[in-house]
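This part of the workshop introduces the protein records we will be handling. A learned vocabulary of local backbone shapes supplies the integers on the structure line. Getting from the letters to the tokens is the skill we practise here. As an example, a complete record with its sequence and its structure tokens follows.
=====
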Amino acid sequence: MLNKNYKIILSSCIANIFEWYDYTLFIHFSITIANNFFPKANQSAILLEAFLVFAVGYLVRPIGGIFFGIIGDKFGRKETVAMSVICISLPTTIIGILPTYQSIGISATIIITITRLLQGLSVGGNLTGSVSFLIEHSNKKNHGLLGSLLMSSLCIGILLGLLTSYLIKAILTPEQFNNWGWRIPFLLGSPIILLGIYIKYAIQDTPIFKQMQTTNKIEKFPLRKTLRLHWKEILISIMINSTGSVIFYFEAAYLINYLEFNKGFDKIAIDFLNRCCCIIMAIVTLFSGWLYDRIGAKKLYTTIITLIILSIGFITQLLEQENFNLVICAQVAIAILAALYIGAEPAMQSALYSNNIRNTALSLSYNISVSIFGGTAPIIFEYLVQTTGSLNSVAYYITACSLISLIGICLYKPSSDI
């Protein structure tokens, strides 16, 4: 099955890699983007502008998930993947060529905000659309491994964005980077639009979707049916995904800033550690998917959640130490736990829903969960640390989310459709 569908697997993974490469670039260059496309202000105002533009993308993710989810259930899984790839390549190109605020004034601010909206919308639909697309092309015995390829490619995309950012800054002078160099990584990602076109016109849709077309079982109103008949599954999905979102953003978004600004460790060392953790996660996610295919969702997630609850307090204590070697051990442990959790989620979550509403339900539940738990995680973590003066408070929050997920996994019951 893997050999038979290698073009589909490769196309889906490459699309996901560049989707998250583009997304990582925007996050990593957010201050530079704010400097170039917003009115000149003090550093605090620029930082606020950068965070606001970043937040806009998270706010529209559920909307993008619903939009692309409905397209996937009504018009085809590959349509979702192709459209979302094309939609994220356009803002990437625009960012690379857009004149600055100094050249065209407030128009630059408006256009960059719109591009961020479009970026958020497309990210909201691509990952879950790719999950349906890839898993419905595979045998049931390979669902875990195939789904984990998408999470592994997500980590590779983030790593590629981080490496490109590092290399461009290392090659150019600060003046060259700030004037024009930061645009190069965005323009390098522009050709991904060709992959979107290729998927749309050269790749077959899933056998499951084609069968639904043949038997006239396409759901006319997938969102309405999802909310009316599958709200329990949506709630269970959100509960299970809460821990995955929180621990992933703890690793990928919060720790890098905490270790630099709160602990005062060297930025170069932290960035290198972060890139190493991306590599570890890309590998461990595949192991998680492989395990899912052998022991099933309930055993796997009960074990992972128990590990998180038992170890997170000890890990946060290590992160507070002044010895950087202990910090390395702690961050690697977090990376492994996060990767184990997210690796099998595509297969586990997709199994919750029937074929005719899978794309809509997956997109809705995943993006709501990521927006509520993932998007707010760095803010909540920093608030807890500033309020209590200790990273241990974060451990309590992650434990609380883990208990919610444990209840969700106890209620978990896969659909018979897949």
